[in-house]
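Q: Structure tokens for this one, please.
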Amino acid sequence: MRPLLPIAVVALAIGCGSPTAPDGALPLSAGTYSLTTGAVSRLCRDDVQPRVVRYIVGWVTLSLEGTTWVARPRDAASGSFELRLDRGDGADRFSASPVRGTFTGRLQDVGVAPFEPPSGVRLETAQAGATVGVNGSASGAVASGAFESPLVFSNAVRSMTCPAESLNWALIRDTPPS
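A: Here is the predicted structure, written as tokens:
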């Protein structure tokens, strides 16, 4: 009977899920994450100035409100936005849960220290103040997916609208550079 006790304890721990995510919430945990966006379609590429739409990175704080995970800028350098993530319809696949959510506001690139300085590039909804749907999957310290509506990349010189589903997003638990 004794050898079964460790197996039962492990099974109970696995079955309980994340200590910070209640039933119905995605399997994420509160903390600091990087939010990265990047073009996945030639429709969103800018051959004249590729840095405008290559990718941008911002630092966010992820917190749980009820069963919704909410990512907001860690500081003003990352912009002024809100990314809300809920468990989507359907069953988990390959240990990842389906994600449905929304994005509103403006994500500002903070660069990837020490490799790239901030680029001055912003990502925002095509219509000011609009809310854009997002979809994807989440597992552990990562959530990722696509934006469901057009978004605009811009810098001090130009702007470019990217069509729906042409941009990916990734939320990755991380520590910002100091």
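A few notes: The longest strand covers residues 97-108. Residues 106 and 124 are 4 Å apart (CA to CA).
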